[in-house]
Amino acid sequence: MRVIHSGHSLTDPIVPVLDMMVAAAGQQEARSRVIDRSTTPGSPMDWRWDHRNEYMPDARHDIADYDMLVLTERAPLSNTVQWHDSENMALKWFSHAWNEGNKGAGARTILYATWVHTDSGPDFDNPYDDPDGHLTFRERLPLEMERWQIIADEVNENRPDGSAPLRVIPGPLIMAAAHDAIAAGTAPGLNKIEDLFLDTIHLNAQGSYLIALAHVAVIYGFDPRNLTNFPVRVEAPDPATADWMKQLVHDVLKDYPDAAYAPS
Length: 264
Hints:
Blueprint: E1 2-7, H1 14-25, H2 28-31, E2 34-39, H3 45-50, E3 68-71, H4 81-84, H5 86-100, E4 108-113, H6 137-158, E5 167-170, H7 171-184, H8 205-220, H9 239-254
Parallel strand pairs: 1-2, 1-3, 3-4, 4-5
Helix pairs in contact: 1-8, 5-6, 6-7, 7-9, 8-9
Organism: Paracoccus liaowanqingii
Protein name: SGNH/GDSL hydrolase family protein
GO molecular function, one term: hydrolase activity, acting on ester bonds
């Protein structure tokens, strides 16, 4: 499968980990895989639509070369959708991929839903006047997921006739489950949600591993619990932490219909 990821800095650390996971799976997908990035830091969907990527493959103009588009919006949505027409832009990207992707045979689209700042709350600096900035990270995750769901529902209700449904990688649901398990003391090797982050929003190696597991499950239909405990050349969590992450991702995805998770 030839996949292109259109996004920003919350996309960048996922792609190399995902590539190694698919390679380690040792199936047909590994032998024929193409996993490319088309990213611009901080960019919303409309900016990426209007500005060709001069340094990487371009997810709009080069979509004929791909079978799958993984698309995300600027995070957080609470301070993006009202300015960037996110629902209609997602539908525009989806329709373009379906009509022009795979040399006109149609490329499917997956929406990569992301999260919010871990330091959100009453003492949050809030430099961009985020309307949800006074709420804590955990309080905001379901609100953020609702906004992603609105985008997904809008696309699926208006997608071109005959097109395959938009699927969703539910990052806020995974982060909420991880947060609760860490708080309950049931996440091996993790003491606080910040242990998954480089800063207040960007993932470190452990966080990238967690979210890459969700990508490999939704994009390729792999059961993350069956993946080897780590591909070489990429930093990995300890085996106990990795196994816990695999089970968490499996549990979240099987209860979320729009992931269309049916592991092989």
